[in-house]
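Postdoc handover notes: sequence design on the structure in folder B. Input tokens:
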């Protein structure tokens, strides 16, 4: 081989010979000096190709093989490298060694018989067809390895690497080695070839040996020394590169790195590669069941895998993989073990939860107990192969049962000990909790509403602190507080019911005055149940207001027993008995049981939010439900008065998502708080998912705090300024501004139902629009209820009885009603308007009678005691509930004493009626009451066991039915007698139960404004046709009828003007009440034929003395409004029913006018019978048990709440009334005409009262309150104000419900009139007045005219014409069509 030349552009090829100590074991020891490993690492640097075992002891065949080829040197092959200078070179690596015969252990004989020292110094090498050497395994198996021949010819040696083993070799003396190396170096030096001294096995090197080697090199005139380690691959390439640099003089002096520096660099390189490889394995291998072949194939192309395998080899890479797999498996085992151990407490709690069962057992004994449990296999699994880590159960993730051998571990026993200790602690803690609860119940210091901070010092002791955590005892205390508060509220509600008579005597309405609220508190103040809520005054006031709302507006929804109102129970019972007749009761019950939820935030400062929440709750039912447009909603209120950024004042909580916000203010500061709070809310929700809070529907309302009064009390200018500021803020916030609330005198509310309805409707509309945009269909409408139907007459019954039941009584209502609803004598009414009424077929007094029995609650019956025709009452009360008896008494107070009453005391068992002292007391009170009012009393048993007492039979009521039948005519006559004037005023038609024609006292209908609203329950069972019935006519008596008719007309036309006098008493001939004047076909009776009036004379009653109703004429107004109350009612499908004061005609109270109707005329008032000796008395006057709160009725009779009432009569009025007809006959005028004029004249001769005070106008008005001629002209015959109002209503309000019925806003009406007086060209559309405001102002214009539209001068003629035509029509209506044809 020729040496490389500088001018040669080809890659130079060098031949490097590695030499060192060789020979027999005696000469070199048991191992070589590392020549083969050095060559192996340089030629094949990959860790997988590196072999540590290269033996020199060969068999003869191996020695003669093509690899050794009978030579004592090995050809390692040709290697290419890039030097540091960037130049590439190639090298032939040859190892000079000496092979030993494995038989003789002497060197093999070869072609060259020279000793090793001389052979090693040979500079030319040649061997025909010699193969490249890989490893010892190649010998004899050359065909399994790559076969590459040594170049033909002789190789020219370019340099030598002299190896010195610096490790502690076995059976080898280092000094002897150095002698051999010195001798060998001397022979090599003779060749003049470069030599590099290579120290091998430096990873196991001895410091002295290394030092001696360096000393040897120094003595040899700068002999280069390279410290290497073939096993660690340190400085191997450096040794060969250093020799190349010595061979090629142009490359400069070689730079040799110290061993430890090179080792550090190599270690860092390996560590970095290992880290990258481990990262690769962690990312790829996630399951401990992965195998190396699959993973290695997946990593073949990864550079991290290649690098690490090159440096460390596949074996180490596999080892790291196996370590990772082992770690994954151990982690999996540990996870499963932790899972098993975490489940073990649950298993122990489920299987051995009783302390007494395991307290005396060891852990081994407990394991046996566990195996005997029924649910053992649910928690544990017994594996055949152990341990469980080596079983398939380890990887069965679906089976979470605990291997039973896990219980043998120490950790499991520790868990059992903890479980045992837990059971002991729980037993002790349960005892402490029981003691704590008992302490709370027995302590007199724990009262409803008392904060924990005030009570803890009286309750807590050392044991409580030791065994109970603070959240635990606070939770127990809060639960106890909730229980006693609920109980106190229930007791207080029962107390309110026990004082039912007080509330009805006070005549409380929607705005109870401060005086009446004070009277209620004065009466109830000494009651312990009242004092129990001393710490919860707001809740107590809310309960009182809610009860007042129930008294004033009694419905099933406002009933304290809701949703278990007895009316609902009656409807269900009737629906089960007669499903075909009452199908809607079931639907109504189902529909009312479900209510949509409305979450409303109330934002206000300084107590405004809390007060408003309490007032709104007072308008709700007991379960916080609110009726809106005939539908029930669950109303949830969240008052907020602090910083909205705090969690306690957050709009949104885990259980509350607001649908809208009602913002309250009463000052500039509170308005600023509202604005700042809304700004904070928007800022806090900006960019968040719940940013819908920033788009909540808002409503702004100006209110006053309770006790301030009206806005006039805070100053008109201040109020107007606050309204203007509020409207400006509402415009900026893009929210609705509600009309300011008008509270009552001192104790009024800040809100009315109209405003709440407006807020809730806006929220519902917003939710509907959101739902529509999201594609959700609108909710279906509610099914119609029975109360939606108009009442119709029921001509099927002979007489009508009302059975009253108390809501919440403990007896079984079904058992009470079952004897009445037996199919053999009970059937439903055919009239759909009969509500909860049935027909009973009974034999009374030997005659078969049909009894219409109406089943109602007391609160549903209160409203019709005076107005509906009822022949008798069955009043039921519970013998164990005082409130039931008190409500019965309150009901009887206003019942006329001629109406028969049957009292039924109901007990749940016979023992209760006989053994219970309280029940006996209530029974005695009921029996005494029945004796005082001359009623009937019975006691029955309706228990919960399903057995009806033998006493509870319908025969028990036959004496009562007999009495009802005997007094029927008296009751009917008295009812028509009392209700004839009211029939014209209130548009009520008086009916008799078996007649089909209208009553002769039925007059022309008044306007809708003058109609009293129907009671909350439309009681169709209590209205039926009645009237007179003329005898059937045949051809023979036609002229007699005509003669009678002529006589009737003559009397009618010539009757004298009625005198204003008291009605005398009326006597009835009961012996003629059944048969003599009955028509056999229709059973219609003539009232006049069954009544015996006293003879005519002075002071004696004559029906002709009384004038006809005067509804067709204008009625003068009083000076003060009648208190009204607008409520949503489901029977009107969303209409607003205006309920007026039901006692406006009471003898002790004055009548009050209203915005929308006029008061009765003086004639109608004077036609009312006096209270002395004429009309029947009330039961309150016959019993000491009743009317115990009558003094309150007298005290508060001057007007209704928040109003002043009518003006008192003047002395001239009283004198004029006493004079009677004598004062009128002095003028010598027609008495009839004078009586009519006198009846129409205003009381006395006092001037006309001032216009009503509903709208306050300037004192000097130039338009309103003037005569009509002052505001019209020939060019404008219609007043300009009237024209504007009519045009506005026709243009914008024809679709508005209740245009003239619903009152407008008083402040807007006043403002409208004031603006019109200032500018007659006022544009109503631009001012955006509501339709009801304009309609109210229009009505006020006519009401304030000095002279009515129908002048007084025409009223006499109008009355005469009306009386004549009305009488003829009524008389003709008594005939059948055939009879009228004959006439």
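Designed sequence:
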């Amino acid at each position: 081989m020729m040496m490389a030349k500088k001018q040669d552009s080809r890659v130079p090829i060098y031949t490097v010979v590695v030499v060192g100590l060789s020979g027999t074991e005696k000469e070199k020891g048991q191992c070589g000096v590392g020549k083969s490993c050095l060559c192996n690492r340089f030629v094949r640097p990959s860790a997988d190709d590196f072999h540590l075992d290269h033996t020199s002891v060969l068999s003869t065949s191996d020695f003669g093989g093509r690899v050794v080829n009978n030579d004592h040197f090995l050809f390692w092959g040709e290697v290419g490298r890039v030097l540091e200078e960037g130049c590439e070179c190639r090298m032939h690596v040859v190892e000079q060694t000496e092979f030993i015969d494995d038989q003789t252990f002497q060197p093999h004989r070869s072609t060259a018989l020279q000793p090793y020292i001389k052979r090693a110094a040979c500079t030319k090498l040649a061997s025909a067809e010699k193969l490249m050497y890989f490893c010892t395994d190649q010998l004899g198996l050359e065909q399994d390895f790559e076969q590459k021949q040594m170049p033909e010819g002789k190789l020219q040696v370019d340099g030598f690497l002299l190896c010195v083993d610096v490790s502690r070799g076995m059976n080898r003396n280092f000094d002897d080695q150095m002698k051999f190396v010195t001798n060998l170096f001397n022979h090599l030096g003779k060749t003049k070839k470069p030599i590099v001294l290579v120290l091998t096995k430096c990873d196991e090197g001895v410091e002295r040996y290394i030092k001696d080697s360096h000393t040897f090199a120094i003595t040899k005139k700068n002999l280069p020394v390279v410290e290497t380690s073939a096993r660690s691959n340190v400085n191997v390439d450096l040794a060969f590169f250093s020799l190349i640099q010595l061979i090629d003089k142009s490359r400069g002096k070689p730079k040799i790195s110290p061993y430890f520096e090179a080792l550090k660099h190599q270690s860092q390189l390996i560590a970095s590669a290992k880290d990258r490889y481990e990262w690769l394995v962690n990312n790829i291998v996630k399951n401990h069941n992965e195998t190396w072949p699959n993973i290695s194939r997946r990593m073949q192309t990864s550079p991290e895998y290649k690098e690490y395998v090159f440096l460390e080899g596949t074996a180490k890479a596999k080892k790291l993989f196996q370590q990772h797999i082992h770690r994954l498996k151990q982690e999996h085992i540990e996870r499963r073990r932790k899972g098993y151990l975490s489940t073990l407490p649950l298993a122990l709690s489920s299987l051995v939860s009783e302390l007494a069962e395991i307290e005396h057992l060891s852990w081994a004994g407990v394991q046996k107990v566990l195996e005997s449990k029924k649910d053992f296999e649910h928690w544990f699994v017994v594996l055949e192969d152990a341990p469980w880590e080596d079983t398939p159960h380890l990887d069965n993730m679906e089976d979470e049962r605990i291997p039973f051998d896990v219980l043998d571990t120490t950790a499991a026993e520790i868990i059992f000990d903890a479980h045992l200790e837990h059971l002991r602690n729980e037993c002790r803690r349960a005892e402490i909790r029981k003691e704590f609860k008992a302490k709370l119940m027995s302590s007199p210091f724990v009262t409803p509403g008392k904060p924990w901070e005030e009570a803890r010092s009286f309750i807590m002791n050392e044991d409580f602190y030791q065994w109970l955590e603070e959240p635990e005892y606070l939770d127990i205390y809060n639960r106890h507080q909730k229980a006693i508060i609920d109980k106190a509220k229930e007791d207080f509600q029962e107390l309110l019911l026990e004082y039912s008579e007080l509330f009805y005597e006070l005549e409380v309405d929607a705005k109870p005055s401060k005086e009446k609220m004070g009277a209620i508190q004065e009466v109830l103040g000494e009651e312990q149940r009242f004092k129990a809520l001393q710490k919860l005054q707001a809740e107590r006031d809310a309960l009182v207001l809610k009860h007042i709302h129930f008294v004033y507006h009694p419905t099933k929804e406002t009933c304290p027993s809701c949703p278990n109102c007895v009316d609902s129970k009656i409807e269900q019972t009737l629906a089960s008995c007669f499903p075909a007749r009452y199908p809607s009761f079931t639907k109504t019950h189902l529909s009312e049981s479900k209510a949509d939820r409305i979450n409303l935030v109330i934002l206000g400062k300084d107590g405004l939010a809390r007060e408003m929440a309490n007032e709104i709750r007072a308008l709700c039912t007991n379960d916080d439900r609110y009726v809106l447009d005939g539908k029930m909603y669950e109303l949830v209120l969240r008052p907020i008065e602090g910083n909205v950024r705090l969690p306690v004042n957050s709009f949104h909580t885990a259980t509350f998502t607001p649908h809208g916000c009602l913002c309250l203010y009463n000052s500039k500061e509170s308005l600023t708080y509202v604005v700042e709070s809304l700004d904070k809310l928007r800022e806090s929700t900006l960019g968040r998912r719940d940013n819908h809070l920033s788009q909540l529907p808002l409503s702004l309302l100006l209110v006053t705090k309770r006790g301030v009064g009206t806005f006039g009390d805070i100053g008109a200018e201040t109020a107007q300024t606050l309204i203007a500021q509020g409207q400006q803020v509402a415009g900026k916030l893009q929210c609705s501004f509600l009309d300011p609330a008008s509270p009552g005198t001192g104790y009024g509310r800040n809100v009315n139902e109209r405003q709440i309805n407006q807020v809730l409707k806006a929220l519902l509309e917003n939710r509907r629009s959101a739902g529509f945009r999201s594609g959700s269909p609108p909710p279906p409408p509610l099914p119609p209820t029975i109360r939606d139907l108009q009442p119709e007459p029921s001509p099927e019954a002979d007489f009508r009885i009302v059975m009253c039941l108390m809501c919440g009584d403990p007896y079984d209502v079904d058992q009470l009603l079952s004897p009445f609803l037996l199919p053999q004598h009970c059937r439903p009414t055919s009239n759909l308007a009969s509500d909860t009424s049935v027909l009973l077929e009974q034999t009374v007094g030997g005659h078969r009678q049909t009894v219409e029995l109406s089943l109602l609650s007391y609160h549903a019956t209160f409203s019709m005691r005076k107005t509906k025709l009822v022949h008798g009452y069955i009043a039921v009360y519970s013998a164990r509930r005082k409130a039931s008896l008190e409500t019965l008494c309150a009901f009887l107070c206003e019942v006329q004493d001629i109406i028969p009453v049957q009292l039924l005391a109901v007990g749940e068992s016979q023992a209760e009626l006989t053994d219970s002292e309280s029940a006996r007391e209530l029974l005695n009170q009921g029996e005494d009451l029945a004796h005082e009012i001359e009623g009937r009393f019975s006691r029955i048993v309706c228990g919960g066991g399903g057995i009806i007492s033998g006493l509870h039979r319908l025969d028990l009521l036959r004496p009562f039915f007999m009495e009802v039948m005997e007094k029927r005519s008296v009751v009917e006559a008295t009812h028509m007698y009392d209700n004839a004037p009211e029939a014209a005023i209130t548009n009520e038609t008086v009916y008799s139960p078996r007649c089909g024609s209208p009553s002769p006292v039925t007059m022309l209908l008044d306007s809708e404004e003058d109609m009293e609203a129907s009671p909350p329950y439309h009681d169709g069972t209590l209205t039926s046709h009645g009237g007179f019935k003329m005898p059937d006519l045949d051809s023979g008596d036609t002229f007699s009828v005509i003669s009678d008719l002529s006589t009737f007309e003559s009397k009618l036309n010539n009757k004298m003007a009625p005198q204003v006098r008291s009605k005398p008493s009326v006597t009835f001939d009961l012996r003629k009440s059944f048969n003599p004047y009955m028509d056999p076909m229709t059973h219609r009776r003539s009232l006049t034929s069954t009544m015996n009036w006293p003879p005519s004379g002075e002071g004696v009653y004559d029906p002709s003395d009384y004038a006809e109703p005067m509804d067709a004429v204008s009625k003068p107004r009083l000076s003060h409004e009648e208190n009204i109350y607008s409520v949503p009612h489901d029977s009107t499908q969303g209409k607003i029913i205006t309920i007026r004061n039901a006692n406006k005609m009471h003898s002790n109270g004055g009548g009050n006018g209203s915005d929308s109707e006029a008061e009765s005329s003086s004639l109608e008032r004077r036609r009312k019978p006096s209270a002395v000796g004429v009309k029947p008395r009330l039961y309150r006057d016959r019993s000491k048990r009743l009317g115990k709160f009558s003094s309150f009725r007298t005290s508060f009779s001057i007007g209704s709440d928040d109003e002043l009432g009518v003006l008192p009569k003047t002395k001239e009025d009283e004198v004029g009334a006493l004079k009677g007809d004598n004062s009128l006959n002095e003028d010598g005028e027609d008495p009839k005409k004078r009586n009519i004029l006198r009846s129409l004249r205003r009381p006395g001769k006092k001037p006309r009262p001032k216009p009503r005070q509903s709208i306050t106008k300037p004192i000097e008005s130039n338009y309103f309150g003037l005569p009509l001629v002052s505001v019209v002209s020939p060019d404008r015959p219609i007043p300009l104000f009237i024209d504007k109002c009519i045009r506005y209503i026709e243009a914008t309000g024809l679709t508005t419900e209740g245009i003239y019925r619903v009152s407008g806003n008083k402040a807007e009406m006043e403002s409208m009139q004031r603006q019109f007086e200032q500018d007659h060209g006022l544009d109503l559309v631009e001012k955006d007045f509501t339709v009801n405001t304009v309609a109210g102002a229009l009505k006020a214009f006519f009401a304030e005219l000095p002279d009515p539209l129908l002048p007084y001068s025409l009223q006499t003629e109008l009355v005469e014409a009306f009386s004549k035509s009305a009488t003829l029509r009524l008389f003709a209506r008594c005939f059948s069509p055939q009879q009228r044809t004959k006439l």
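Context for whoever picks this up: The first strand starts at residue 13 and ends at 20. Don't rerun without checking with the PI first.
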